[in-house]
Automatic annotation (TrEMBL):
Keywords per UniProt: Metal-binding, Oxidoreductase
Domain Manganese/iron superoxide dismutase N-terminal: start-end pairs: 3-82
Family (UniProt): Belongs to the iron/manganese superoxide dismutase family.
Substrates-to-products reaction catalysed: 2 superoxide + 2 H(+) = H2O2 + O2
SUPFAM superfamilies, alphabetized: Fe,Mn superoxide dismutase (SOD), C-terminal domain, Fe,Mn superoxide dismutase (SOD), N-terminal domain
Function: Destroys radicals which are normally produced within the cells and which are toxic to biological systems.
Keyword Flavoprotein appears in the UniProt entry: no
GO terms of molecular function: metal ion binding; superoxide dismutase activity
Pfam families, sorted: Sod_Fe_C, Sod_Fe_N
Domain of life: Bacteria
EC number of the protein: 1.15.1.1
Amino-acid positions noted as binding Mn(2+) in the UniProt annotation, renumbered to this chain: H27, H74, D157, H161
Protein name, entry field: Superoxide dismutase
Length: 215
């Protein structure tokens, strides 16, 4: 069966004023939707029907694996945001972030600093290594932590299509990505991040090429 564009976990306008309904619609329906369409076109020329995104990521090569990565990353990203998000982490996740980064604010500073490496054309992630260590990493658009045995907790799309429409015209366009990143602090879905922090490591799933997708 062909892949379908997963439903957003909230209404498009519900992330305003941090992401406009038009920005979310363009990113979701056009960009994410085109990724799914391209993936299905590639699948139609292979014998890989009924394979999950995770299996395609682990077992196939480009361009099929690249499109599977983009599809997986975007679905994960939408769940990292919530109209009821913001504030900060609590419980064990908060204690871990403070232990690793010094404070939750210092964690956000680390995100901003590392984001400078890929603003406009990449992703930033909070991941758990198979050693249990938390790290902030950046990856290009066609890569994902699960391909490296890292467990993703939080992802932020830093490609221009994710923010430029909303943030390029309010101040220095070169700093649009940083303004977007700062705004997302108000809608990070910390419940989802905390759930991922408790999940089994990706390394434990690699034998079966399974990493549960967000529902």
């Amino acid at each position: 069966m062909p892949f379908e564009l997963p439903a957003l976990p909230y209404d498009k306008q519900s992330l305003e004023p941090y992401l406009s309904a038009g920005m979310v619609d363009d990113h979701y329906r056009h960009h994410h939707g085109e990724i799914i369409a391209d993936l299905n076109r590639l699948m139609s020329t292979t014998s890989q029907a009924d394979r999950s995104l995770e299996i395609l990521i682990f077992q196939e090569s480009a361009p099929l694996s690249d499109q599977a990565v983009k599809a997986w990353n975007h679905t994960f990203y939408w769940h990292c945001l919530s109209p009821f998000g913001g504030g900060g982490p609590s419980g064990e996740l908060s204690r871990e972030l403070v232990s690793v980064f010094g404070s939750v604010d210092a964690f956000h500073d680390a995100l901003s600093y590392r984001a400078l490496n890929c603003l406009g054309d990449g992703w930033i992630w909070l991941v758990r290594e198979d050693t249990g260590e938390l790290r902030v990493i950046t990856l290009p658009d066609t890569d994902t932590p699960i391909a490296h045995g890292q467990t993703p907790l939080l992802s932020i799309d830093l490609c221009k299509h994710a923010y430029y429409q909303d943030y390029a015209h309010n101040g220095d366009p070169a700093k649009a990505g940083l303004r977007y990143l700062a705004a997302l602090r108000n809608i990070i879905n910390w419940d989802f991040v905390a759930m991922n922090a408790k999940a089994p490591s990706v390394a434990s799933h690699q034998g079966s090429a399974r990493r549960p997708m967000p529902r």
